[in-house]
Structures are given as structure tokens and as C-alpha cells.
Design goal:
By secondary structure, the chain is α/β, with parallel strands linked by helices. The protein folds into 2 domains: 35 residues; 288 residues, Leucine-rich repeat, LRR (right-handed beta-alpha superhelix), CATH 3.80.10. Helix content is 32%, strand content 13%. The protein has a 10-stranded mixed sheet, sandwiched between helices. The longest helix is centred in the middle third of the chain and has 23 residues. It is globular, with a radius of gyration of 24 Å. 34% of the residues are buried. This is F-box domain-containing protein.
């Protein structure tokens, strides 16, 4: 059977593998070197999530649209390990064993064994969180190092990004990757080692983001879609990443530290980077190709206060968001949950100046007599 498969053209082998479940593809790749290369090329689209508990994984995947409710078992514990859509598109959920904190001294006969760092468990919640993030990224980096060159679409759900994962992305997914989503916001997790309030803010800033776009010889440069949720990327790091991907058409930022005036003014062309004089010579803004821009739960995007926005003249009614004018190809713009921006201010600016087909307002002011809709299934 192996000789028959090896005699087939590579295109036929990849087509056959696209119908197999994930476990069978992995088993096929372990048979020989030729099949190992074939099974790597087969994996084109991957969505990977690493969590402490299975319930965390289920809710996160449901919220992200990775799975549907009818894919779950009758019992919550019968959740999917791997789900496959049409073709070589796989969703993999990994539940990392939950390590309990050591509150009591171990028994005498186990103390010598506990001196080994592999068996030690930190009692500080911040150190425990750091260890979990390292474990999540270790799994992710191993997957990217093996399958990165063939991946076109990649999504990763965890708690944060570290140096090891960023390095794997920059080296293995340099030109072929077209869709990248890094989702680190999971507000439903209340019983883990991260404080519930931490989900409402971006993750801590890190130099790991430098590896994705700073170096001209490494880093991702072929993206068309970029999604960052609860990312601790700084504005200048985000500028470098977007600059390295000139074909970017979809940019979705949620609870992202980089969504600040420094980045947005550059994106819309209202401010130029003096270190890149060639950008000043262009008539179009760096974000001119963007068709979708979502800024959700980002509260520091205004360039100046708009307390008296009702008194703004019509020709400058978008004062504070002038950078939007430079995004001439925008078809969808979202300010969802940006609580510092009044919805009527956005409505007026879009009606008179921007004229973007689809705009999501920050929030709605409900009056006292506004009816509340209730799902009939809960009545």
C-alpha cells in the first residue's frame, strides 16, 4: 500500500489526505519520510487552542465560532478533541493538565523528589500564570515549527504570546501565511490562575512582538487578514507588523494595546514616520488597502477630546478621528464597546464625511421605555 501511494502524484496524495481525520493524517506522516513531507503539506488551515480546563476550551471555541453547539456531546465532558471542516481545515483543542498549588509540605519520602524542578509547583499566582503561558506557547511553537511553511490560515487561542512562539511564526510562516488570528481574551474564565479583571485589559507588553515585523529578513510579510484579541503589542510594534504586510485588507483589534493615536494616525496617513521617507512621497495612507477595520473595546483611540462634539462644524465633525478619512477603501468599520466615544458622534461623522457602508457604533443609549427582547426558549 505504501508503494502504491508513493507512486501517485503529490496533488492526488494531498487530495486523499484532505478527507482523512486529523489522527489518521498524523499516523500517515509517521510511516516514512516521503509521507511525512506529504502530511505536512496537507495541513493548510489550523485552529489551535490550549487551555487549563475542557469547559474553558468549549466556551472559547463556541464564542470564536470554531465549533457549533451541535458538535458537542450530550455531556459537557464529551467535547470535541479535533473537528474538521471541508478540506484540510482542522480545529484542535488541547487541555493542559491543571496543576494544583502546593499549600502543605510534602511527605518526607517525596521531598527529595520534589527538589527536582520538574516536580516543583510555584505558589505565587503570577508565576503559575507565567508557567501556563510558557506551556501553551511551547505546544504552539512545536506545531508551527513543523507545519508553519505549509500553513495558509492559522488561529491560536491561549493566554498570551511569548518569545518562543513569536520566533516560530517569524521563521516558519514568513511568506505563505495569509490569515493570522491570535486570541487571548477569555472573559468567561473565572476559575483559572488569571484574575477575572485581567481579561478586560490588554496582556502585558512584550518584546516578543518585535520578532513578527521588526526585522526585514524575518517576520511575517504575506498577511491579508490579521486578528489580535487582548494583545500586548505596542503601537510602534503594530506599525512595523502592518508595514511588513502591505496586502493587508482585514484588521481586527480587540482589547489591543496598540490601538492608540500613534498607530491610527500613521495608518490613516495624518502623520508620517520620519524613518521611512518613501511613505511621505506616496499620496495614499499606509492603510489605504484596508477594507475591514474593527476596533473593539479600545478606549484610547481619540487624538483629542470631543466633549463638545455637538458644536463641531460639519466639515470637521470627525475631529479626533481624522485618520479615518485616509482609509478610502473601507467597507466595514467597528467601534464596538469603545465606551469613550458617543454613538451620535460616529453617526454624524460617517453620514457627512466618511460614508462607509457598514459602521458599528460604540454603544446605544436605551431609553426607559425601550422594550427588552427575550429568547422564547427561556420563557
Amino acid at each position: 500500500m505504501a508503494d502504491r501511494i508513493s507512486s501517485l502524484p503529490l496533488e492526488i496524495v494531498l487530495q486523499i489526505l484532505s478527507y482523512l481525520p486529523f489522527e489518521s493524517v498524523l499516523a500517515f506522516g509517521e510511516t516514512c519520510r516521503t509521507n511525512h513531507r506529504s502530511h505536512i503539506l496537507c495541513l493548510r488551515c489550523l485552529r489551535l487552542g490550549v487551555f487549563e480546563k475542557r469547559t474553558h476550551s468549549i466556551i472559547s471555541c463556541l464564542q470564536a465560532g470554531w465549533i457549533k453547539a451541535d458538535q458537542l456531546g450530550d455531556e459537557l465532558g464529551e467535547a470535541f478533541p479535533v473537528e474538521r471542516e471541508t478540506g484540510p481545515n482542522y480545529t484542535v483543542s488541547i487541555v493542559w493538565p491543571n496543576v494544583r498549588l502546593v499549600k502543605e509540605a510534602p511527605l518526607l519520602k517525596y521531598r527529595s523528589k520534589m527538589k527536582d524542578p520538574a516536580f516543583q509547583c510555584p505558589t505565587d499566582p503570577s508565576l503559575m500564570q507565567q508557567r501556563i503561558v510558557q506551556a501553551q506557547n511551547k505546544i504552539f511553537s512545536r506545531v508551527v515549527n513543523r507545519y508553519g511553511p505549509s500553513l495558509v490560515k492559522l488561529e491560536f487561542m491561549a493566554y498570551d504570546l511569548d518569545q518562543e512562539s513569536a520566533e516560530a511564526l517569524s521563521k516558519k510562516c514568513k511568506r505563505g501565511l495569509r490569515h493570522l488570528a491570535l486570541r487571548f481574551e477569555h472573559q468567561h474564565i473565572r476559575d483559572g490562575h488569571i484574575k477575572p479583571s485581567a481579561w478586560r485589559y490588554p496582556a502585558p507588553c512584550s518584546t516578543a512582538w518585535n520578532l513578527l515585523g521588526q526585522n526585514e529578513h524575518t517576520g511575517i510579510c504575506g498577511l491579508q487578514t490579521l486578528i489580535l484579541e487582548r494583545a500586548g503589542i505596542m503601537p510602534w510594534q503594530l506599525m512595523m507588523l502592518v508595514r511588513r504586510n502591505p496586502n493587508l485588507t482585514v484588521l481586527k483589534l480587540k482589547t489591543c494595546y496598540g490601538a492608540q493615536p500613534e498607530f491610527l494616525n500613521w495608518l490613516g496617513g495624518t502623520e508620517r514616520d520620519p524613518d521611512y521617507p518613501e511613505e511621505a512621497e506616496n499620496d495614499y495612507a499606509p492603510g489605504d488597502r484596508l477594507e475591514v477595520l474593527w476596533l473593539e473595546n479600545c478606549h484610547d483611540i481619540l487624538t483629542n477630546p470631543i466633549d463638545d462634539h455637538e458644536n463641531f462644524a460639519d466639515e470637521v465633525c470627525d475631529s479626533g478621528l481624522e485618520w479615518v478619512r485616509g482609509l478610502r477603501n473601507l467597507k466595514s468599520l467597528s467601534f464596538s464597546k469603545c465606551m469613550k466615544i458617543p454613538p451620535e458622534y460616529i453617526e454624524r461623522a460617517n453620514k457627512l464625511i466618511w460614508k462607509i457602508p457598514e459602521v458599528t457604533l460604540p454603544f446605544y443609549n436605551y431609553e426607559e421605555d425601550t422594550p427588552i427582547e427575550v429568547d422564547p426558549t427561556f420563557l
